[in-house]
Amino acid sequence: MSVSIPADYVPPVDLLAGRRILITGAGDGLGRAAAIGCAAHGATVILLGRTVKKLEAVYDAIEASGAPQPAIYPMHLAGASWKDYADLAGTVEREIGGLDGLVHCASHFKAFTPMSDIEPKDWVEGLQVNLSAAYALTRNLLPLLKASPDASVVFVSDRHGREVHAFDGIYGITKAAIEQMMRIWAAELGTRSSLRINSFDPGPMRSGVRLRGYPGERAESVPPPERVVPRLLWLLGADSRGVSGCAL
Ligand SMILES: NC(=O)c1ccc[n+]([C@@H]2O[C@H](COP(=O)([O-])OP(=O)(O)OC[C@H]3O[C@@H](n4cnc5c(N)ncnc54)[C@H](OP(=O)(O)O)[C@@H]3O)[C@@H](O)[C@H]2O)c1
């Protein structure tokens, strides 16, 4: 399917009214901007991340804006067990009552590294945070997402998972794997499912991953994550109904 997100998309203010959306890596960068953007468009957001202080700051910003009250779910994706993911799904069902969106923003990336120099710890954490956690979260939350009349899962990807570049290391490998996982899942769900699953490359943003990859770059030369949030909202709202299995 050849689909593109409308470049000039302006999300209606009530686009996500009544929807419950879980965002990983919600304390910083794109995850933070996405959480604030989703809440501003009516969603109840569940802020998942590993640094509680950062999550609390996002919580406070959303609460002060008058948007629906968010929830915080601290979780260290590098060390989470299968039971932790099952517990999370149970808590979301019990406390929030369901789920209509899941955005995988959390990402492990330290630096561009030659394949032969990847540290074992870096390899394992990259696989856990970027791939295994995204799989386990999606799998455990799938029953709730399937029960929603109009749910959307977004794997935040990167062109480094779609092209081959030297030194991309475990980051590039896991981003490529995410793209394939997204396609397989979408194929299994089929076109009649009310749940859609896509991946999204936000392009360069002035946030963690970029700053670690290009430390000498002039920060102002790269747009802030807020710039891409309308396109992410398109993927989460009703305007993208029927779009699934796409790398956008
Ligand atoms: N920035 C870019 O130019 C760019 C370009 C293309 C794609 N992307 C993608 O965009 C997404 C967001 O990246 P970003 O630039 O906004 O990065 P970021 O600011 O570093 O945000 C990454 C988030 O992931 C969280 N995280 C990392 N390890 C974790 C763990 N073990 N458990 C739980 N949370 C963890 C971080 O939490 P803490 O803040 O607590 O560390 C942070 O909130 C990523 O998927 C990235 O691959 C970014």
UniProtKB/TrEMBL annotation:
InterPro entries cross-referenced by the UniProt entry: NAD(P)-bd_dom_sf (IPR036291), Sc_DH/Rdtase_CS (IPR020904), SDR_fam (IPR002347)
UniProt keyword Oxidoreductase, yes or no: yes
Keywords from the UniProt entry: Oxidoreductase
Record-linked Pfam families: adh_short (PF00106)
Cross-referenced SUPFAM superfamilies: NAD(P)-binding Rossmann-fold domains
Domain of life, per lineage: Bacteria
Family indicated by similarity: Belongs to the short-chain dehydrogenases/reductases (SDR) family.
Protein name, entry field: SDR family NAD(P)-dependent oxidoreductase
Source organism of this protein record: Sinimarinibacterium thermocellulolyticum
